[in-house]
Amino acid sequence: MTTPVPPRKMRPATALVHGGTLRSQFGETSEAIFLTQGFVYPSMEAAEARFAGKDPGFIYSRFSNPTVAMFEQRMALLEGAESARATASGMAAVTAAMLGQLKAGDHVVAAKALFGSCRYVVEELLPRFGVPSTLVDGTDLAQWRAAMRPETKVLFLESPTNPQLEIIDIAAVAEIAHAGGATLVVDNVFATPLLQSPLKLGADCVVYSATKHIDGQGRTLGGCILASEEFIQTHVHNFLRQTGPALSPFNAWVMLKGLETLPVRLMAQQANAARLADFLAGRPGVERVLYPSRKDHPQHELAMRQMSGGGSVIAIDIAGGQDGAFRFGNALSIIKISNNLGDAKSLLTHPATTTHQRIGPVARAESGIGDGMVRLSCGLEDIEDLIDDVTAGLKAVTG
Ligand SMILES: *Cc1c(COP(=O)(O)O)cnc(C)c1O
Asked: Which end of the chain has fewer CB atoms surrounding its CB within 10 Å, N or C?
């Protein structure tokens, strides 16, 4: 296996095509899938050296694998991070990033508006192991400050949030974390590494569900943790090796192929989202459109300060509550009803009855998730077809 001439500094689109590529002796163009659990050694001495860390080769695919290593390297280049570790899913990344840092007696502060499973980890799982958590309104910096305790170790947030697309000031929360001797972990799924760089804003660790935009075509689950080499070595490296949420080499290969086209797909999806948001705003049957790059987004300025675009997801309050939202969704034919996002196919979710059913009506109301809210993840279809589809949806709402 050879690493070619050290590449010159690559801009993101180039790094996403060439970054991290390891070629075997066959000189394949496309990255190879090393579908192997283990590796053989030329001698007993070589095995000894590998295990002693004197020879950096591969040992076992729970630890590392060439295809997975290519994915990790490409992600690190994209994020501008020193180090990356791939995981089997986004939730494996979130869980490892948290558990790897925490022990009984520590305390966690997190924004309330979290992906459902992230909320389970913070609110239910960590307290069972002696790590209490405080949930705050992530947009209110005073609440973050007030929640800090001497034993607070980790702050955790997503921005934009799911599904209401609130923006949390990452730089300000990082400052609060560091002033209290804690770290900040950011789930950057909605923004993607192309639109927002939490590490540059002061976060200590970034996690992704690669299942979303990075695959982008709805095929495989995957995740990634990115941070400084020191953070990864101290908190993540051993935890992942010994507990085993490893990404399959096949899935890593799918993600590598996904990364090649990420900028092209994301820009096209974002253009569709921006057009649809403008089309929907103010139309009969629509009470409100939330999209970060629209001037009427409540945190438009902050959004444009820390993101380079509005992203591929829109939140829409449909008139008539759940009944209105259901009429809208049931009248769509091109946009599919699904809970995924970042896909080439446009996907509609009704959070109150699906992804956010479990948290109950009180927590939903607190988080601004109304019964009429739908989340639309914009895909790669022709914009005119998407406009025709939502027009049919609104006709079913207004009668
Ligand atoms: C999907 C998602 C996750 C979980 O990722 P999986 O790959 O489904 O495990 C975590 N956070 C956010 C914001 C997500 O959208």
From this structure: C
